[in-house]
Write a structure and sequence with these properties.
Layout lengths: L1 H29 L4 H74 L15
């Protein structure tokens, strides 16, 4: 969903810049001025548009970096939560297994305890 929003913003900005360039060019071509004045005006507009483009690029880059950092933080949090849940599940499984083994031994009348299950490899 965020990708679509970023795409829409990029398309809007591109259209805005292209429209500005076309409008400026038409205005300069149709303006009743000398060639030197027109060239100077084109040069100034070019510099202005370059500065605007650099600002837009800087803003977009900062937003992208912030979004990437946010996504990275959320992924790390989700991974940590998944690890905790997996450890809890493994502990419950070991407890259930030990209880079942004890009940089975009791039912069979065995006095000798069965060997314990080795702990998980991650411990």
């Amino acid at each position: 969903m965020a990708d679509n929003n970023d795409s829409d913003i990029g398309a809007f900005l591109t259209g805005f810049v292209v429209g500005g360039l076309v409008g400026a060019a038409v205005a300069l071509i149709l303006a009743p001025q000398s060639g030197a004045e027109t060239r100077e005006q084109i040069r100034m507009k070019g510099i202005e548009l370059k500065e605007r483009g650099e600002e837009t690029l800087t803003d977009a880059r900062a937003k992208a970096e912030a979004a990437a950092a946010d996504a990275r933080a959320r992924a790390e949090k989700m991974a940590a939560e998944a690890k905790v849940r997996a450890e809890e599940f493994a502990a419950k499984g070991r407890t259930t297994f030990d209880e079942g083994r004890a009940k089975l031994q009791e039912a069979m009348g065995s006095k000798k305890p069965a060997p314990a299950v080795p702990p998980a490899a991650s411990e």
